[in-house]
Design brief:
single chain, 3 helices
Amino acid sequence: MIVDLILFISMLGFTAYAIFSHRLLNAAVSLGLGSALLAIIFFRLQAPFAAGFELSVGAGLISLLFIMAISLARKESD
């Protein structure tokens, strides 16, 4: 029970940091970490398929696309 509470509060913290961060790269990484924590919560709730999907798509693919788009946009503005 206490582990679930710690995971949930950490996930909310990373998500809030992603919302209020002024640096886009930090926000994208924080969003990926929050999504990875959500996948751990899904796994602890005995939903392994939802956890795997969230980990691969939410934490992996979407975060990677955000980071690549940020880096490409910075190269074009130089």
